[in-house]
Amino acid sequence: MKKLFVIGNPIKHSMSPLIHNYWITKYLLNAAYEKKEILVEQLPKIIEDVRLGKIKGLNVTVPFKKLVFELVDIIDDTAKESMAVNTIYRKKGKIIGTNTDGLGFLESLIKDLAIKLKPGSNIFCIGAGGAAYGIISQLIKLKPDVVEISNRTEKTAIKLKNHFSDHDKTIIKVRPWGFQPNRHTDLLVNTSTHGMNHSDKLSFNLDLLSKRTFVYDIIYSPRKTELLKKADSLGLKNSNGIYMLIRQAAQSFKKWFDVDLNKEDIINVKKLLG
User: Fold this and answer.
1) 198-240 pLDDT, tens per residue?
2) 65 is catalytic
C-alpha cells in the first residue's frame, strides 16, 4: 500500500485525510493518506522516504513550508512564486516541491463560484503572508489593473509588493491596515488569518463596495467570518475558503496519482466536509 502524509506541527485540525481518502477509495487506489505531526529534525528523514519510494507523497503545512526548500531536488515555479512548498512528489527519481494553493484558489473562483475576472479588474487583498503570495501569483496572470494589499505590518506588505514588481502590467499598491476598499473593487479577498477567531472584529468597512464586488475569505472554519457576515448584510456575493481547500487538494492528488478529478468529485467532498 502506498502511504501519503500531511506533515505539520500542529496537525490535528487538518481535513486533508478526509478529502484524499475519499478520492483514493472512489478510484480504487492502493493507498492511504494520514496526518503526521513531526519535529523539524525529522524533516530530512521523511523526505528521504519519498525519494526511496517508502512514501508516495507529502502535503506540507505550518511550520515547514519554507524549511523543505533545501531538502528537495527541484522547486517548481509555483513554489518559487508562492515562496512556499505545500506538496512534495517524486518524478523521474527527483523530489519536487510545488505549491497548489494559488491554482486551487483560482480554480475555485472560476470553476466553482463562476467568477470571471476580466483584464483591467481591481483586486483588494487583505494580508501579506504565505497564502497571499500564491493567490496573487495566479491573479496577476489575469492582468488586473491594480492589486491593493492591506496588511497589519506594512513592511511585510512592501516585501510582497516587491516580490511581484516585475509584472509591469499590474500596479501593486500597499494600503494601511483597515483601508476602505471602494466601488472600483471587483474582488476582495482575505488571505490572512484575521477572522479565524470568534473574537476577531471586522477591520474593514465594506459599505463603499458595489454590488458586483465578490468577497472571498479563504478561512473555512468558521464557515462565516465577520467579513462574510458583513458581505451578506450588504447583499454582496461571497464565499469562504472551502472550495479553495478542496481544489488545492485536487491539484496535489493529480501530482501523485495522475488523476484528473471532475466536478462531481469536488461537490461530493464538499458535502462530506459539511
Assistant:
1) 888 899 999 999 999 999 999 999 999 999 999 999 999 999 9
2) yes
